[in-house]
Design a protein that fits this description.
The structure is a single chain. The chain has helices at residues 84-93, 156-170, 197-209, and strands at residues 8-16, 20-25, 30-34, 50-55, 65-72, 75-78, 103-112, 116-125, 132-139, 141-144, 147-150, 174-181, 188-191, 212-220, 225-230. By secondary structure, the protein is an alpha+beta fold. The protein folds into two domains: 8-74, Beta Barrel (OB fold (Dihydrolipoamide Acetyltransferase, E2P)); 84-230, Trna Endonuclease, Chain: A, domain 1 (3-Layer(aba) Sandwich). The chain has a six-stranded mixed sheet with strand order 7-8-9-12-14-15. Strand 5 (65-72) and strand 6 (75-78) form a beta hairpin. Helix 2 (156-170) runs parallel beside helix 3. The relative contact order is 0.15.
């Protein structure tokens, strides 16, 4: 996924009200950017961090900028959670995510379960595989060298999704969690059970029920984000 416009550099002043961030641009101008990330952003929101913004292209939006990347200890981290579904879709289509090869039809944001929407629904497998419900989670937390973790805050919504994926398996479908690491410095992935033990227990139960889980890393630059190799999951 290439960024549509050249990113604009600045330094974070503060992130507040979850979806807003004040940023001092390199030209001396202070702007408020949309922060498309509902998580805690642990380790990423310290004042003074170098950040990268993209200009808003939708004339209906109230803010002129979107926060895309943050530089933490010389590592680029993608904080925009509106990108992972598209990134995973592209990685399925181009064959990077080999576990989901062979499906001819892909739908996004399809209603299912109890008033939920699945991120990606795959059908029409050439290999005779069952239709597959794919839930995507953006991973940005890293508290230990080379180790990425999810979640970075309690996620009741994420726990609900795991239970609904288990039901899809019970109904005869495939279901898969795809954890997408949006940072350049991690080679392993684990669940942050100390942050949300209920989510960790729900994932264990879902895996027991037959839900699949994979993790992939991304290569991030100031021009693009590309899904690369599979990352081992340490549970």
């Amino acid at each position: 996924m290439k960024f549509e416009h050249k990113l604009i550099r600045g330094r974070l002043i503060k992130r507040y009200k979850r979806f807003l961030a004040d940023i001092l641009l390199d030209d001396g101008k202070t702007v408020t950017a949309h922060c498309a990330n509902p998580g805690s952003m642990m380790g990423l929101k310290e004042a003074g961090n170098i950040v990268w913004l993209s200009p808003q292209t939708n004339p209906k939006t109230k803010l002129d900028y979107k926060w895309e990347l943050v530089d933490v200890n010389d590592c680029l981290v993608g904080i925009n959670t509106s990108h992972p579904n598209r990134l995973v879709q592209d990685a399925i289509t181009d064959g990077t995510i080999t576990e989901l090869d062979g499906y001819h039809a892909l739908r996004r944001e399809m209603k299912y379960g109890h008033n939920s929407r699945i991120d990606i629904f795959l059908s029409g497998s050439s290999q005779g595989d069952a239709d597959c419900y794919v839930e995507v989670k953006s991973v940005t937390l890293s508290r230990k060298k080379s180790m990425a973790e999810f979640p970075d805050s309690v996620t009741a919504r994420g726990t609900k999704h795991l239970k609904e994926l288990s039901q899809m398996v019970a109904d005869g479908h495939r279901a898969m969690m795809v954890y997408l690491i949006q940072r350049n410095d991690c080679t392993e992935f684990s669940i942050a059970a100390d942050i949300d033990p209920i989510y960790a227990a729900a994932l264990d139960a879902a895996l027991y029920d037959g839900v699949e889980a994979v993790c992939y890393g991304c290569n991030l630059t100031h021009k693009e984000i590309i899904v690369r190799q599979r990352i081992p999951i340490r549970l």
